[in-house]
Amino acid sequence: MVTVIGVRFKKAGKIYYFDPDGIDTSEADYVIVETARGVEFGSLVIRQREIPEEDVVAPLKKVLRVATEEDIEIHRENQVKKEEAFRVCVEKIKLHELEMKLIDVEYTFDNNKVIFYFTSDGRVDFRELVKDLASVFRTRIELRQIGVRDEAKMLNGIGTCGKRLCCANWLGDFEPVSIKMAKDQNLSLNPTKISGICGRLMCCLKYEHEVYLDLRKGMPKDGEIVKTPGGKAIVISTQTIREQVKVRLIVGEDKGEPVFDEDITVYKKQEIRRMKNNKATKEEEEVITEDLSEIEELI
User: What's the pTM value of the predicted model, to 2 decimals?
Assistant: First the structure.
């Protein structure tokens, strides 16, 4: 087991583990830590705790000190300075006529570097821009191209649900989202309905996916022949959350003239028995196709 604390450098940013190195951080809100970029100011979001060694990326960086009032003031000054840096960079981008959009600016705590985040549809030759910015700020300059998801995370906004973006307010890191998740949840595959304001698949498709996978276990597919308390039937549609199956009973089999019942019957998933040979015959498929098209508006 390893003793660590969790530090976040941006709102809703990823949480990084650091070695407290014997420093008492129990009453601290902010800490000064050593990172790959140098000395950084971060918010303490996870108090000292022990975690398995395999959960830590070695080597573990150390906490330098609990942030003092002077450190907090320096951090505030950096937040003010980045606004001026943003304005200057926008002017320089226009001057050099570059096809890029500036998103955010960040000063490292020790002012050793200024990082400019931007988006662009392709590669950008910003060598002259870097030289120009370096002559203005007289420090190391880094221009970092980011994707549309990171842009949304930095800028924030209102999602289609009417609430502020998850990625910008509490979602620490992006998780892979696939179109299969939308299919598993019976959602419309219309891109405008399942995409966030960043233009990518909505992160919230991931939230309930495992629940849907669990509820779908044992659920028959549309067009499948099943056994129900009312007899043999064809599945018209399923309602995953309610664990219900809509079917049309097959009647008249005993007379040698099987037809689909006019009414749609709803059963619980537990009441449905899937048949080993659950594929419809060629004749049944023709009837199914015809009947499904007739009742499509009713479902």
Answer: 0.74
